[in-house]
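PT: before anyone asks, these are the final sequences, not the draft ones from last week. 216 residues across everything. Please model them as a single complex and drop the result in this thread when it's through.
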Amino acid sequence: MRRIFDILYSTYGPQGWWPGDSQFEIIVGATLTQNTAWHNVTLAITNLKREGLLDPNAYLGAKPELVKVLIAPAGFINIKYKRLRYILEYFMSHNMDFERFRRLPIADLRSELLEVNGIGPETADSILLYAFGRPVFVVDAYTKRLFSRIGYSWMEKAPYDRVQEFFMGELPPDPELYNEFHALVVAHCKVTCKKIPLCSDCNLRSLCITGKCKAN
DNA sequence: AGCCAGGACTGAG
DNA sequence: CTCAGTCATGGC
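LR: through. Structure below.
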């Protein structure tokens, strides 16, 4: 597992995630990117910034119609508008006390986040890792897709928590490592695309980046 | 013209 | 508990 990380890292280099300036922006981005191309999320976040709504009070005080237009590029406008509301209300109910979130035991904070309507396991873990620097491994569709092709076929249909437990059992609880690992998986999948067939010329198959495989 | 993107919720069986 | 249906837009 560590070897796979090393290959990815030497291939793509440090990714510098999360692509956002503030903790708050990371939280908003993690929500808006649900089943959505990141490019579209950047359009929405740029809109919110321009209108000064990338701020909890401003967002909650703005007219729904306006907010929906601004986040429209990210899709699912009605659902995501509500989800952002719920999430912001959660943080506001704790006075946006990020220091508190930083102190809370990981399991407790994760449970709190999962109780919020609109925050599922991946969004919760993205917030934990990228906004609060907690050592939580983020699993997503790319993770399952990639690893199910390089020897872990069981991951394809495995539930989120099972896959996460596996990775966290293989790797030390290092936020920096988890940060880069997830970002590198995304970076790799973005360039390989899910239609690339398995490579029969090397053990790494679709992860192979030697350029010698037929799959590449 | 479809198909897909850094998911999560809901309701039915 | 499992699972299809639903949600919306921009890029290729």
